[in-house]
Design brief:
Radius of gyration: 19 Å
Strand content: 5-15%
Number of helices: 2
Amino acid sequence: MIAYSKLTRQDETMPTDVEQLRLIRAQTLALIVEMTARPKPSYDLDGQTVSWGDYLAKLRATVDWCERNLAGEEPFEIHTRGLT
């Protein structure tokens, strides 16, 4: 279920990129929690392989991608020191 907190009928604004990244990250983390709480075995079916370990790795990569992009959007400080 996707819920946009700033989406109203009068003002149909789309969520910002940062809000979308946070939502993707939260949903992916929820999937990871669910998968690790009830792990499933990998299997082959009619020549197709379902690898839950690979899927979990892709979910973790998605979280990492979101975190890298969110880190670039957040305010930051640069500390410098001058030497004479």
